[in-house]
Amino acid sequence: MLVGRTPGTIDDVVHHLWGNLSQQLTALIGHEGCNALFDRSLHMTSAQFPWLTSHNAPFGERVPLEVLKSALQPRDSDESARAVILLLSTFTGLLCMLIGQNLTTNILRTAWGDAFEEALREISQ
Question: How far apart are CA 86 and CA 28, in angstroms?
Answer without folding.
Answer: 23
